[in-house]
Amino acid sequence: MGFSLFVIPYPMIDPVALEVGPVVLRWYALAYIVGLIAAWRLMVRLARQPGSPVPEKDADDFLIWATLGVILGGRLGYILFYNFNQYLADPLSILLIWHGGMSFHGGMLGVVIAMIVFARRRGIPLFALSDMVSLGVPIGLFFGRIANFINGELWGRPTDVAWAMVFPRDPAQVPRHPSQLYEAVLEGLVLLAVVWLVNLRFDARRRPGLVTGTFLIGYGTARIICEFFREPDVQLGFLAFGTTMGQILSVPMILFGIWMVRHALVQPPLPQPVASRPAA
Has residue 276 been placed in a domain? Predict the structure, then answer.
């Protein structure tokens, strides 16, 4: 492949967003904070709507559970799916989360476990809770991919497109797809629009699981598409039939999402929520 002599300069942004004495806040951590807070406030707002199956207090309390699920699941997923041998040789590096190394699929499994346990303990419908969570997750995905771009990591495959960039941390120093931005758009903005469209147009609150299934299908599809432009992890490379780990892990998401959507549509819709009237 011949590369263009002209590329878009990579914007050199300090990965540290704020530094006050010994306190260092990186864009990577800030993306997680903003994404979690935005999703949390959205859940609380949805819980305040008349007839919500998830009480406001439960939506409020779930933030801590979601945070633990994202961080622990994301880190453990990356270790198991992407770089097990390295962390086995240097176990202390597991704690260096600010250096990167988080898996969305692992984080999703962590949140799923958190939702199952939380829903059982609070006695709330699991799919109603997962639908609310799914409406907010694309916000976090968007900010997370922007943080990947700022860190100059998880770059794309070599290309000669007009918007190619040379990433400073790339040993090959060749023009590449800014695939982090592709993912921010597809996994973040487009997916956010899709799940909200389904939520509003199909009265999804009466069909628990519909939004969750749509999210799983949408994210899995977006991730598979973006992986065609993203450079595979160097320690894994390409897998069977030229696939990547991200694509393989996305297939079960899509299949389970299809099942959830079908299940939600064939079930009789729940009764129309009735707005509570103020006491006389």
Answer: no
Identity of the amino acid at 130: S
Count of domains for the chain: 1
- List, as one string, the DSSP characters of 69-98: HHHHHHHHHHHHHT-HHHHHH-GGGGG-GG
Question: What value does the CA radius of gyration of the chain take, rounded to a whole number of Å?
Answer: 20
H or E, element range at 24: strand 23-26
- How many other C-beta atoms can be found within 10 angstroms of the C-beta atom of residue 221? 18
HSE-CB for 251 with a 13 A CA cutoff: 5
Structural domain boundaries, residue 92: 23-266
Block residue for tokens 């453990």: 76
- Long-range contact set of residues 249-254: C-beta below 8 Å, sequence gap at least 24: 249/81, 249/105, 250/105, 250/219, 250/220, 250/221, 250/223, 250/224, 251/220, 251/224, 253/105, 253/108, 253/216, 253/217, 253/219, 253/220, 254/216, 254/217, 254/220, 254/221, 254/224
Phi-psi label, residue 231: left if phi above 0, alpha if psi -120 to 50, beta otherwise: beta
- Assessment of whether the complete model's pTM goes beyond 0.85: yes
Q: What are the structure tokens assigned to 271, written together?
A: 């009764």
Count of alpha carbons within 13 angstroms of residue 63, beta-carbon side: 17
- Residue 40 inside a domain? The answer is yes
Distance CA 112, CA 106 (A): 10
- Does any domain span residue 212? yes
pLDDT per position as a tens digit, 63-114: 999 999 988 888 888 888 777 777 777 777 666 665 556 788 888 899 999 9
Quick check: is 9 in a domain?
no
